[in-house]
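To fix ideas, we give here one paired sequence and structure record:
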Amino acid sequence: MQSAMDNISDVSGPSDIERILVPILDTFILVAGVVGHILVITVIFQDTSANGTDILLLSLSVSDLLLLSCIPYHTVTIATHHWPFGSFMCKAVSFLGAMCTSASAFTLAALAFSRFLTVVHPSKAYRWRQGRRIKLATAALWLPAIVLALPQFSWRTLVSASGTHTTRQDMTCFHFLSDTSQIAYGMCHFMFAFALPLGVIVVAYGKIYNFLRKTRRGRTGQADRLESYQTQVTQTSVLLVLGFALCWLPSYGLMLAQFADHSTVTRPSPPYGALATFARVTSISSTVVNPILYVFMSQKFRKELKNYELWYLCFMVFGCIVFTAIY
């Protein structure tokens, strides 16, 4: 996914409006995302009864925070219209972004599988979600993410935006493979870090829905309360997935459009203008979606915020962001 965001963040000749608007939007996303995920991590660490789902949500917050750390580099690039951070940071930022977006997709797939076991096969879920096992499984999710991102660190380099100058002010962090290899890598990233996890997620939640629908009749009062809780948690998980998928679809759609037009694949200036800017902003907005969903959908999360008096910080930060955006 990061390869898509990298390519569309190197668009040649951004308008004056984009150069002003993008840094403002990036700042809002960065502040809201960092504060939101710090609140999530604080709540999880303070909760002594944290379960397997909480461990996966913690991993999701860590990946989003790492992805947020990449935003300032792209913001400066768009504002100044060149990459001023050197070759190593070009490789490192691209690697970090690709790794984190892949890890997020894998974690959401694991969250869907965990929900499936909890609802449909609770006895198996208890064994699988034991503290040590779930921690090892969550850590293991980062291994394929690292493997998928390694080409970014190994071969990405600086190129001249115009193709005629090689000054520092003319360099952009862009392509790192040949035409055919670039397409192959992009398609592999799309399949393994987006389409495949999304397929696992759809199947898992489809089975959960069918199970809950079939077992709804003949429930006792206690069973109804348990089912209500499971339904609420499942709904929150589904919304997390939908938010992630919808935020990243424009970037992937644009990346696939670039691959369909071979003339744009190896050019450091894809001609997509405002559409590319929109796709980039929606993709990084995915880092803000999760904390917002926790606040509005998770009764447990709201309760923990109140217990630790974190509501004040939450309202203050998000309130200031909304107020500034309006006025």
